[in-house]
Amino acid sequence: MPVSRRSFLGGGLAAAAAAVAVTGTPLLAGCASDKKNAAAANAAVKLPTYTKYGEIKPDLPGTDVVLDGFLKYPANPVKAITEVPGDGKPITFMTNIPGAIPPAADQNQFWQEVNKRLGSELQISMASNDEYKDKFATRIAGGDLPDILNIPTDTPQIPGLVKSKCMDLTEHLSGDAAKKYPFLANIPSEYWKGCVFNGAIYGVPVPRGMSRTSLALYREDLLAAKGIKNPAPKNFQEFFDLAKEMTAPKQNKWAWTRVPISTIRMMLGIPNVWKQDGGKFSSMHEHEAQQQALEAARKMVAAGVINPDAFNDKASARKQWFNGGIAAFDYDSFVAWNQYYADNTGDPTFGVNMMDVPGFDSGDGKPWMGSALNNVTSFSKDSKHSAETLLKVANWMAAPFGTEEYLFRKYGVAGRHYTLQGTDPIPTKVGTVETGIGLQYISDSTLALYWAGKPDVPQKQHAIQQKVADRLVYDASYGLYSDTLSKKQAQLNKTMLDLENQIVQGKKPVSAWAAGVQDWKSAGGDKIRTELEQAHADTAGK
Length: 542
Description:
By secondary structure, this protein is α+β, with helices and mostly antiparallel strands. The protein has helices at about 15-25, 40-45, 110-120, 130-140, 160-165, 170-175, 180-185, 190, 220-225, 235-245, 260-265, 290-300, 315-325, 335-345, 385-395, 405-410, 430-435, 455-470, 485-505, 510-540; strands spanning about 90-95, 120-130, 150, 195, 200, 205, 215-220, 255, 275, 280-285, 325-335, 350-355, 375-380, 420, 425. Residues about 1-35 have low confidence and may be disordered. It comes from Kribbella hippodromi.
């Protein structure tokens, strides 16, 4: 199963700079890779043997790309793990939190029950999505590592970091050894490629892939109020016209939370980060249709169909606009689709769906496959816990949909955190608040298409996945390490994003993109290309 990661080993230089400012210490002092992280050495690592857990049968069977769907939670869920995974001693974990920071453990009955079931007190240090990378960089620079570490996928120079700070898990996970942890073995082998560095396995994947594939999400209820059902624009012009129809500035309503330039690029067949053809790599920045995409995006901004605060506010604000009906469209993923329902449990009229992407003039667009991993979970070398204990905890966190462990991990305790509607766990307000402690970032199973009490949600999700599966475009850089990409990607991407924003806001001409691409190439883009081509050649046939 080929899956993509978006700039998996990108820069994260802003976070590193923040850490230097706080601690006076470079992020990777003493952690620089010894350059032995050759692509061939990584390719030679025997990945965990994929052993699918077959106890649960989906209502909507998936494929190696389309996710399994369930119309209801299985009755009498299987209790899949009988052994308490913890060792009785506190386990520390640092993570991001996508929603509001939940109540502390002493005021959180879900967290207390987690500790009881784990057999160890789980001490979690949390930060919001917007703040986590800076907090992570500061902790790394200060050498103050928890037992379990959520490593963002765009952290610079991950090979040096994990070699210096984290446990080598190869002997525990390579090949059939992973069968000792059946729910880690239930994660398809391809996702483990993003956990291999320095010729060894240094972490556990938090898989995303298809669940992170992003297209135009829309508020079904808001469009229906305008008499629009199942919107399916056939080209960019119809896509643009639909946006104008859903915009009413005097009513504080706009079509889009942000400029849908990724969607426009998919309409034009622009690559998903990097394209490979005959061993030669080319970047999305260089594609001949980029200026056409920028001009189309500029037209949308000039027409006023984008929330005017889109260039100033953070991602959390965009979610609030979509939740609150200020915007009808948002470019986001299947994970976000579910999160929107979680954020709106009190509104029975709230509805979300996803639009396919058309070709710019006609036909079908080429959607981008989502990033393979949310994060890599590694274990500190300095942890007083054994690798076996921490892997048992990760295995418990990866128990899949349909098990009793999954039901508890995602929904909590019946009566307090959810009520049963048939066999479906319907979250209570307390449940929504207390369960969001970030367990999914220790480990997780691949996403199941499901929403409690709303069988139409997985049906819609499964249908759109089936529709786009054969057209997905993959990032050719996945699983290939480029040292220059690791060090410079964040700054290079920021420079190109800043230029993009200037162009679409009409502050610079579309023609400025060509000069920007030349600057990108000389500042590191060409070197990244060369390193990716070499890594690809080194892994050919392996």
